[in-house]
Amino acid sequence: MFGHFLDRFCSGLRILLGVMMGALAIPVAMQVISRYTGLIPTYLWTEELATFLFVWIVMIGSIVAVWDGTHFDVRITRDATGPLMRLVQNGIVHLAIMLFGALFLLYGFEYTAFGSNQRSVMMRANLAITHVSVPVAGGFWLVLAGYRLSEDIAEFLNRKNTLS
Question: Whole-angstrom Cα distance, residue 98 to residue 144?
Fold first, then answer.
């Protein structure tokens, strides 16, 4: 039940990512057109908006990558063939993601507080808009990797019980 909810949530995030990528194309196109053609004046706020969107796209994309298992992990051993070693290999990856998620969540609040005391130069937007993406992503990494770890443990226990 919870896994279905998380899957639907990540599907919504994928849609949001598509919308944000489309939105990112607008200020970037304005920058390119103004720099190389002179058809429109140079608007400096477009660079800030593109940066804000890009930061959120990266963080939301990392959340989806944790759910899909498409994040970056390095295997220093061959892929395990046995269920226990597969659990250990995947468990190490999930625990590492959870550790970084906890660190991003813990220190992200201080980072957001730091950003909330600053404003962007052109748009005068509070920089907490982008800084809050750090603890948000960390919290979701923690939850999603924890769920994936629990799935791996349940799969191992089910295999163990069916073999007995």
Answer: 9
